[in-house]
Amino acid sequence: MERSYKYAVLRVIPDSRRGECVNIGIAVFTSSKVDIRLIASLNKVAAIDGSIDLHRIAALPESLKDYLSSKKSVEAKYSAFKEIGFVSLSELGWFMSENDGDYEASIKRLMVTLVEPKSRSRHIVANTKITISLRDQFKKQNILGKDAKDITKHLVIPNYPLFPDEGLYADFVLKNGVYRITETADLRAESGSAADRRRIAADAAIKLDKARKKFKRSSKRYVVYGASPGSDASQQVNLLGDYSDGIYNIGSKTDMASYMELIMEAASQNRQLEKHI
């Protein structure tokens, strides 16, 4: 069932007279708790004002958990948070989510759009095009799970938690005998630069490597990538090949047919693959 969540952007404003402001995270408010997500690096905060206690900021999710949870409503939690005064809060916004996977994806999008430095957000957003395409394919084949618990049903789980404490979520995971992890890498970066492609490939490689460490030999790892015509993405493709058991170009009908057949077989769907690939 789709559910509405309210959130606020967390900000540090060292000196309002200078107009300097750093967005440091997102707080999602529900009647039972407040889910606080902070940016990975607080270096920009320190650069603006070296006197700010970064340890106190980093401790916010844990230090405020009991205090805010004791408040009875979203509005009460929001007001209590604002009164602390150590960080500033934006006005409340909202988003809709059907399940745990959608919830994590929504928070990730908010962090990318509203909090994380733009230089980092560009290639993360680009990968969304491939993940949306794959998600649509899995949904049409009736093998897309609603949340992480559906992993036991041999369904494809989006945004599967690998190491949540490190902010690492696999794009897609399917378990049937072994864990089958799929990472996307859209090498069609907006600038088309080699640096962009390296960052995109590195993000995927890190998650694939961590997945292997988590599931050990009980895993198969795949990459679905995109590359612009005429661009030299061979180095990044070779890198990803070192971390995967199969690599597929989303622009190739042959590649994608092979990939979908593999996933369908692993999902134990005893019917012919629909002819829409």
Commentary on this structure:
The radius of gyration is 21 Å and the shape is globular. The protein has ten helices and ten strands. The protein has helices spanning 43-48, 54-58, 60-63, 65-69, 74-84, 100-115, 118-140, 194-215, 234-242, 253-266, and strands spanning 3-12, 22-29, 34-38, 88-89, 93-97, 157-163, 168-176, 178-186, 219-226, 246-249. The relative contact order is 0.10. The longest helix has 23 residues, at 118-140. Strands 1, 2, 3, 4 and 5 form a five-stranded antiparallel sheet that branches. It is 42% helix and 24% strand. The chain is α+β, with helices and mostly antiparallel strands and 277 residues long. Helix 8 packs parallel to helix 9. It has two domains: 3-97, no CATH class; 117-266, Restriction Endonuclease, CATH 3.40.91.80. The model is unreliable at 119-126 and 269-277 (pLDDT under 50).
Radius of gyration: 21 Å
For the record, the CATH class of the largest domain is Alpha Beta
> How many distinct folded domains?
2
Secondary-structure content class? alpha+beta
pLDDT < 50 stretches:
119-126, 269-277
Based on the coordinates given, report the CATH architecture of the largest domain. 3-Layer(aba) Sandwich
Quote the CATH topology of the largest domain.
Restriction Endonuclease
Largest sheet: 5 strands, antiparallel
Number of helices: 10
Could you give a short description of this structure?
By secondary structure, the protein is an alpha+beta fold. It folds into two domains: 3-97, no CATH class; 117-266, Restriction Endonuclease (3-Layer(aba) Sandwich), CATH 3.40.91. The protein has ten helices and ten strands.
